[in-house]
Amino acid sequence: MEVKTSLLDNMIGVGDMVLLEPLSEDSFLENLKKRFDHNEIYTYIGSVVISMNPYRSLPIYSPEKVEEYRNRNFYELSPHIYALADEAYRSLRDQDKDQCILITGESGSGKTEASKLVMSYVAAVCGKGQEVNKVKEQLLQSNPVLEAFGNAKTVRNDNSSRFGKYMDIEFDFKGDPLGGVISNYLLEKSRVVKQPRGERNFHIFYQLLSGASDDTLKKLKLDRDFSKYNYLSLDSAVVNGLDDATSFRTVKNAMQIVGFMEDEIQSVLELVAAVLKLGNIEFKPESRCNDTDESRVRDKNDLKEMCELLGIEQTVLERAFSYRTVEAKLEKVSTTLNVAQAYYARDALAKNLYSRLFSWLVTRINESIKAQTKSRHKVMGVLDIYGFEIFEDNSFEQFIINYCNEKLQQIFIELTLREEQEEYIREGIEWTNIEYFNNAVICDLIENNQNGIMAMLDEECLRPGTVTDETFLDKLNTVCAEHQHFESRLSKNSKFLNDHSLPHSCFRIQHYAGKVLYCVEGFVDKNNDLLYRDLSQAMFKATHSLIKELFPEGNPSKVNLKRPPTAGSQFKSSVGTLMKNLQTKNPNYIRCIKPNDKKAAHIFTASLVCHQVRYLGLMENVRVRRAGYAFRQPYGPCLERYKMLCKRTWPHWRGPAREGVEVLMADLQVPTEEFSYGRSKIFIRNPRTLFFLEERRRQCLQDLATLIQKIYRGWKCRTHFLLLKKSQVVVAAWYRRYAQQKKYQRIKSATTVVQSYARGWQARKLLRELKHQKRCEEAVTTIAAYWHGTQVRREYRKFFRANAGKKIYNFTIQRIMQKYFLGVKSGLPSMSPVDKNWPARPYRFLDAAHAQLRSIFHLWRCKKYRSQFSEERKAVYQEKLEASELFKDKKSLYPSSVSQPFKGDYLEISKNPKYQKLNSCVEEKVLLADVVNKINRANGKGASRILLLTKKNVVLADQKTGQVKASVALPDLISVSVSTQNDGFFALKLKEGSASAVKGDFLLSSEHLIETITKLHHIGSTASDDGGEQLDINISDEFLVQFKQDKVCVKFIQAAPKNGNSASCKRKNNRLLEVSVPAATA
Ligand SMILES: Nc1ncnc2c1ncn2[C@@H]1O[C@H](COP(=O)(O)OP(=O)(O)O)[C@@H](O)[C@H]1O
Ligand SMILES: [Mg+2]
Q: Which of 590, 771, 787, 931 could share a disulfide with 103, CB 3.0–4.6 Å?
């Protein structure tokens, strides 16, 4: 996309001086300085380019820059010489307008460089092709040739052009170069014979001496040593940054490219050598008889060599330096020359020779580069000429130069105004009169044919009689005194009489660029520019074809008595031609300014620049340019540039650009007098309006930039985010895959582990089984082995010594036991169970067995004893046993009863007739019949009763009568209570409510208490075997007895034995019956 830019973008200061606000010399200089400090060496004044010499190479002439400026509008980019070149070239090519590029400026301000830049730009952008390239090359290579011969080192510029140059480049309809024509103006030929201090002669002399081969030098009879030549200044022969030897080769090469033949080059160099030789010719005076000095060549060697070089007869030349022939009206008068005249003649010859050589070179180059076709060409002229020169000492040359500049200014004004006017007409804008200073009046002062300064000078030169510079000044004083731009001591204005800054021999002209003081000395001579005819004729006689060609007036057959035109009139006419030429062309101006006098970069000497700004008339330029409208711009670019300032035109205006601009201006409320609408352009009267628009635009751009930034950032973030998101998905996918892979791998390895464990387990199990099996098999073998071993050992054990001890032991034990048992057998005690004897044990270890044997023996003895018992005895013993079970250790009476046999029927009831009756009362067999004491319940006194005991009843009967007093069925008897003491009391407790219990319980006392109770218990226990109730035996020292309704407690106490050894019973009270029992005697 092509980016629309403008000169107004990123301006340093203002890029166009027309926009300077306020316009003053100071602001002008300040703007220049500001831009210069920022390496902006180009600034516009409208379409004029101001160029400051940077004195260093800047990176702004690259091929890329050429491309940048190519086909761009003039105001589109920052100021550049390429913009001007492009503009000129394009209007030449596209609009068929011949162009001229006028480059002016002081010496060293960069004119020649600028002209070369323009040419190189045009060469770069125009068509290509073999033929075109050749032409381009020739045009470009004409520069080094002309520079070598026409340039010199001066104090201002190491490569100062010492001639004015105008070059027409011709193009065909396509814009391809066809050729060119060069015109040269006013070569500073005085430099050939004399150079100011610190300056050099023309480059070619030094180049030839340093760069030519020895062979060439020999041919030219030259010596490499500069000091051998009078015409070469020595103090600055070597210049920094200039390589003369290389330049010589470049020049020769350029001459070849331009089309010089080898012999032509040789001839040129011979002429250059001749000039050097000429300078070395010296003269000495020779006295003549008529008291005059005649000059003679001092050392003829140089003369001779020079004549050899040029093919001149030595004597002819020698004579020409000594005599001068003046021809008047077919009369020849020969006068001698004195030494000074001879030197003058020599220098005049050298100057003429060189300047003619230079002109010839230009002509020769023109021949080479001239367009081959006769068809109409488009022309681009490039004028590289000195600008105004205002020195301390201004002479004829400065006068001429400044005249030229006045003329150029004329054209400038004329063309600028014309162009302006044309543009206004074209654009349909009303023409407003422009106020400006017209310098036509100054031009008139100089060039007027009747009373112009130049005409006066010519008149003086042609006037017979003595003519001097002073007479010329007198003439001026009379003729021009009235002129308002002319000042001299004698002019009518008397105030100058007191003006000591104006010397007598000078006059001052008030040029448009400032006042210049001219010294009239040398005016006449320089204007005459005379070369003695003898010398030109001598030159013509040379056999050297080039030198012959250079002095055609020396041809005796064409003797022209008419004086050649003066230098002034020659110049005037060539300037006239030039002006005519320029007027037909579209002018483009480059104004070169030198920032300092030191040829140094980065230094800006304000006073020097100010001086140049003045004499270049730059302020005048700006004023003219600003007279009408300061700024104009086609509607399209204007709308494009400012459309963002109005809502209706932003971002797109659909209609015609002009309407858009109208809407825009209306919207911005720019006062209508500030601008005008042309046909294709808007004209802005004041820079302020433009700056207002620019400022608004700048603000608006910031907002727009923010908007764009915002949208861009949003877009960028979004794309970034989307990218991140996309990447995140990818990463996640990859990560998931990776994680799953890992997991899978883990599971797999876990499976493998589990598998391996399982397999291991299985394998181990199998191994175990197999091992077990193997062990079993081995065990079988082992067992078999052991078995066999056992068998064998068993079989052979008897033979083992280890068994011997045990055997002996067993044997000994057996023997001891045998002896023991035999001893026991023989020593057994009697068979009586009560026999406590038992043999002593022989050995201690037999303790247990001995005791055991003893008890076994005792049991066996008892058993034997028991087996001898009859049934009756057995029953007796059984009762005894029962008694023991009941009472042993419970009642103190018991031990005394043990030895008493249980007789049972103590009364022999069946036999005793006394108890016949009683016996018959009792149905059952009497188990016990005894006498007991029945204790009276009331007083405790006993009454004897017979107690019968059968299997079913307990019967109490009177002892004397045998009458049954009470019969108690055994089932009604629930318990028997006895004491623990040594007494025979016992209480029979009856079942309450039974028939027998009417009178209450019985409290009895018996001699045979143990036997009685035992029998009762025995019957009870046998009865209980048949389903009856067990009889309770209650042994205690206190028990209750039911006496009729009362319950009486029977309490046994120990008492000292009283009457006898029997216990006594005593009723203590209603409730207590106390029985005193004598303590048992042991
Ligand atoms: N545009 C430029 N860039 C760099 N150096 C320049 C430029 N213009 C001039 N110069 C320097 O200034 C010197 C003098 O320039 P020149 O064109 O010969 O001046 P003029 O022709 O005006 O006397 C040059 O030799 C060169 O060193
Ligand atoms: Mg120059």
A: 590
